[in-house]
Amino acid sequence: MAPKSAERGKATRRQLLDAAVALVPEVGWGGVTTRLVAERAGVAPGVVHYHFASVTDLLVAAGLGFTGSLLDQMAAELSGQPGIGEGVDWLLGELSRYSGTDPASLVVVEMFLAATRLPDLRERLGDQIGRFRSTVASWLAERGYHGDAVAAAAMLAASIDGIMMHRALDPGLDPASLAAPLRAMFGLGPAEPAPPAVPPAEDIRRRRDS
Amino acid sequence: MAPKSAERGKATRRQLLDAAVALVPEVGWGGVTTRLVAERAGVAPGVVHYHFASVTDLLVAAGLGFTGSLLDQMAAELSGQPGIGEGVDWLLGELSRYSGTDPASLVVVEMFLAATRLPDLRERLGDQIGRFRSTVASWLAERGYHGDAVAAAAMLAASIDGIMMHRALDPGLDPASLAAPLRAMFGLGPAEPAPPAVPPAEDIRRRRDS
DNA sequence: GTACTGTTTGGACAGTTGCCCAAGTCATCT
DNA sequence: AGATGACTTGGGCAACTGTCCAAACAGTAC
After folding, report:
1. How much is the mean pLDDT over chain A?
2. CA distance A102 to A77
3. Is the pLDDT of residue B39 over 80?
4. Cα separation of A33 and A13, whole Å?
């Protein structure tokens, strides 16, 4: 055999996947072409169809890889939060990193849309999000959330994407200002028990303007 | 002059806009082509570039027309609701009509995405949604919502789109099941005392904060 | 009738697309 | 040495794209 060639092939495949993920936010899901990916990955155009049956196949694989690790990481970090209040606050802080126009946000929305036209993608992306929701629901239940934890997790997940999308149109929409209604959704008080005047140093990492 | 011709022109223009709106959910924003629109509208391909400078121009005009009337209608109907509880419930009922895979939902998401790449569209769509949020905020304030009505309106608007998107991936996600957390967001009690035939056995006796 | 206007037609144009494939490279195996 | 296998190359193909345009088609005004 030729293990050296196989290694190189794996590397090329990875480069194609990375190039595809990077290209989706720039030109849109439908704007990603064979030659564009090849050029970005630094390979000849023919390579794309050697590693993937079609550009759509490449995009599906690349997209699912991206959302999979993103959701896994978010679920893990959220599960590490001690209480529901801390979790919601952490989530809002995390959300401020996704402006709706940044590459990660755009990939997610593009995939939502592409999934409506690709049954295979829809099923697999739905599974990923279902797993995320389950993790969140368990986390809520373990923290003593009184109510339908599954419904609350669904609302939370939907809110994340909704806020992300709306921020794309209104950059002035500050996630921090949404803390009160979001906390109320989980039966939490309107504000942190600690006085907001002096922020607890470890919890708030960066607080921009007002 | 030729008023008869001008009339016919207006009608053709309308047909092109309608065809574009119908096509977006079917083939995607980027999949709408000159010839596709012309065929759907029942005119020759050249007509498109007589009435619009480019396909993008046509799509922007068609999309904004669609979202404009959709948002206006929703704002008007929501404003007609007597109380916040009724409004939220009405909204959830309305939301069940938008499965995330229906034409209207798809047009909205496609426009969000297109707006991130078309500054002109972003600004105008942002204005439309800003107006919607203002209307909702006023409606909340008039109903005695205690808290930041603007933030609550933003969360509500974002939730609508978030739920819509998530329903596209999980058709089993019932908007009605989200009533409890959504109502809690507005400091409302668990549920209305008017359940359908099948009683929602799972009861949530969640008290709000102070 | 002729002149003028706004609208419509269908084809032409240069460019891009996805996918394919014969020929090539290169390390490994017999 | 030759054969094997995985991978890469660059060009070729038919199909499609947005945009343009000379010509035809109305109706109105003179």
Report:
1. 87
2. 21
3. yes
4. 16
Question: What does the alpha-carbon distance between residue A33 and residue A12 come to, in Å, rounded to a whole number?
Answer: 17
How large is the average pLDDT for residues B21-39?
A: 96
Confidence of residue A206 (pLDDT cuts 50, 70, 90): very low
**Residue in A115, A159, A188 nearest the CB of B158:** A159
Q: How far is CA A73 from CA A36, A101, B139, in A?
A: 29, 21, 39
A28-51 confidence digits (pLDDT tens): 999 999 999 999 999 999 999 999
Which bases of strand D sit closer than 7 A to a protein CB?
A: 4-12, 16-22, 26-29
The pLDDT confidence band at residue B96, using thresholds 50, 70 and 90, is: confident
Integer Cα distance of A163 and A32 in angstroms: 26
CA closest to B162 among chain A residues: A162
Q: Residues of B13-44 as b/e, b for ≥16 C-beta within 10 angstroms?
A: bebbbbbbbbbbbeebbbebebebbbebbebe
Q: For residue B99, say whether its CB is under 7 Å from any atom of strand D.
A: no
**What DSSP line would sit under B141-202, residue for residue?**
HHTT--S-HHHHHHHHHHHHHHHHHHHHH-TT--GGGGHHHHHHHTT--S--S---SS---S
Query: What is the residue type of A54?
Result: S
Q: Is the CB of A19 under 7 A from strand D?
A: no
Helices B103-115 + B3-27 axis angle, to 10: 90
C-alpha B3/C-alpha B23 separation (Å) is 30
Tell me the backbone φ, ψ of residue A53, rounded to 5 degrees: -65, -30
**Distance (Å, whole) CA B41 – CA B47:** 10
Terminal CA-CA length for chain A: 63
The residue type of A204 is: I
Q: Is A159 helix (H, G, I), strand (E, B) or coil?
A: helix
Q: How far apart are CA A130 and CA A122, in angstroms?
A: 12
Tell me the pLDDT tens digit for each residue of B111-155: 999 999 999 999 999 999 999 999 999 999 999 888 899 999 999
CA distance A38 to A41: 5
CA distance A52 to A41: 14
A191 secondary structure, DSSP code: S
- The count of other CB atoms within 10 Å of the CB of residue A58 is 22
Q: Out of B117, B165, B190, name the one closest to residue A28 (CB).
A: B117
